[in-house]
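Report of the visiting student (M.T.), summer placement. My assignment was to run the structure pipeline on a short list of targets and document each run. The first record concerns Cellulase.
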Amino acid sequence: MTTRFQKSFLSLTLVTALLLSLFSSIAAAATKDEQQAKAAPKSKIQSYVDDMQPGWNLGNTLDATGEDETSWGNPRVTQELIKKIAAQGYKSIRIPITWDSHIGEAPNYTIEKAYLDRVEEVVSWALDAKLYVMINVHHDSWLWVSHMEEKHDETLARYNAAWTQIADRFKDKSDKLMFESINEPRFTDGGSTDEAKMEQMLTELNTSFHQIVRSSGGKNDLRPLVLPSLETSPTQPRMDQLYKTITALNDPNIIATVHYYGFWPFSVNIAGYTTFEKDTKNDITQTFNNVYNTFVAKGIPVIVGEFGLLGFDKDTGVIEQGEKLKFFEYLTYYLKEKKMTSMLWDNGQHFNRKTYKWSDSVLQGVLMSGLKERSSSTESDLVYLKKGATIKDTKVKLNLNGNKLTTISANGKHLTKGKDYTLNGEELTLKASQLKKLTASQKYGENAVLTLKFNKGVAWRLKVIVNDTIKLSDAKGTTESFAIPTTFNGNQLATMEAVYTAGGNAGPQDWTPFKEFGNTFSPSYNTKEIKLLPAFFKDVKDGEVTLKFHFWNGEIITYKITKSGTNVVGKSS
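After the run finished, the structure tokens were exported:
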């Protein structure tokens, strides 16, 4: 991670494996799961991990690389915050910690006492709140550990000194405190590219960490220890190497950890993956079949130490709300099925640390409900009706996930089955008469929200939207600042294609015409424009480029831009 919000470096190592995983046999993996599950009775350490579910990350705080824990924009951690998280139903907290700027010079590499005191204060608050707690060496992974190949002895000495002091400070704490050796270990910043060499260095770090903690006294002889794969990646070769490390240590209190941010194209909204379709779903299934087979089925518990979507680095709206909810619903369900504890990555954008409110309470409801049961949804959470057009009966496909639809309501009133809607299996039909009432104002945008309730899981919100044809206007600007005046007329942008008029894909990631949402383009509904961002123009050659903007109502609007040096001119088609 090279910036305070960016986790997209994971995509560089995961995307190939994620794409290839689609061709694996999920059915075969499921059979293997059943066979191996019988061979591994539930252990004490598996029960420990089970009791941690669900978990939450105190991200972008003590892991901040600035002067103090507020340097990345989050307020100072308070005991009240920790209590509020516990009150939300969380059973565990991961407290990422960056030690770099608080470590003294060689040869002692002494950690500042004040910083250790502060870390201990937060840890104690979490333990007092009856939470399981994980602490680690966090952004140090890319700040200095990543240079281990070129500075082997210095890096190892500094790492060992840090863990010697951390282990000693916390050795008498409850065993509900666990240590994670290092976050997302990587060595490419130091120039390492050989996979075998990187795995060798990680094994050395994990083994050294284990030896230091186990010999440090107090309760550390039995304290649960968490070990990551290279970059904490769930790719098979890297998990295989971690399995070898864990089995070689022959310690019953070791937990494996991986991180998961989804099928990369969907996770960042690129290459046309705007919906939670089969490739994205299959990636969850196959990834965690593999994780299960490698670890859980063989008696090694797994914590998914971070999960989320990479698009959240830009904005939580990069992935459309309904598609996002379906992703998290299935992910939490499948992790539960595979007996893995998951810890939500929260850099401050999910749980507001001043108001103690969720920025998206619906998403939070899906995450918590998924720990118990499946929730239902619809093929899309958007119903578009064109302004002024004759309203007809509208069919909506349900994804029941084994549940039954019980009620539909709008504006606090229940709709009447047979009159306002009909149901045939998983096909819901919204009657024209009811839709006409709901959109009587004919204002652009959301006119009503239908709340669908089921016998299990959380309710599903179906938005009824009045829209009309989108209009794009001519524009002039530069590669640093270019915006297309846009009359959205109630519509929302899904994705953008960019190709040279002369042929070939334009912009970054030119293996696809569909560009990355939030990185190369971004709609601004308040200012009524679509911005083409500097990152897009950085990889655009001079000449004419044809853009196609895809909207959620199904419309595709073509627009042309001409780049000449730093100047850009846009023309509507």
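Residues 92 and 132 are 4 Å apart (CA to CA). The first strand starts at residue 55 and ends at 57. I thank the supervising group for their guidance throughout the placement.
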